[in-house]
Design goal:
This protein is of the alpha+beta class and 154 residues long. It is 34% helix and 27% strand.
Length: 154
Amino acid sequence: MSQISGARTLHRLIYTSRVSIPEAAIDHEIGSIVQTSRRNNRDVAITGLLLVHEGYFVQALEGPAEAVMSTYRRILDDPRHEKSKVLSAGPAAGREFGDWNMCARRMTAGDDAILDTLRARDRFAPESLSGAAVLRLLTAVRGIQARTRLGALG
Ligand code: FAD
């Protein structure tokens, strides 16, 4: 996907939620979520990244404010997760995930260094992290995703 330039109305919303998909079905379901997201997000100029780790989803959605909020409201109704908590939401100076209308990554043992920087390796609890810390996590994951597509789910 080509880079989408940020409009003045660019917003970013970051939330976390608990996965409510059985482990055996998770790769399949995430593949399906990414496929649907790519189609829908492209249409409304939303970019972002979805991280899956230790029973949590962490997702950044960025794009025009109205599109971000209507997408998030739709996501909230999805039974594949629960206990969603917004970690940050508001205007953004530019897109951090402009190359992806959505991709997903499951963190692996090889990603421990990233979690270490957040002191989150022992107990990953994104709901207690600040929006800024979670954005750092997601941009670090974006860096890995850009360098290797290994471990990517979509
Ligand atoms: P379809 O994909 O055709 O789905 C129709 C309906 O069936 C929807 O209500 C959908 O929620 C439901 N559905 C589909 N598959 C399942 C399933 N396996 N189990 C239960 N219900 C199901 N959507 C986006 O557009 N952009 C995103 O960035 C995005 N991120 C997501 C992140 C997470 C963590 C989750 C759980 C979902 C995300 N989704 C995202 C999916 C979103 O929740 C909706 O399912 C989707 O947007 C609906 O797209 P659609 O109207 O094209 O319907």
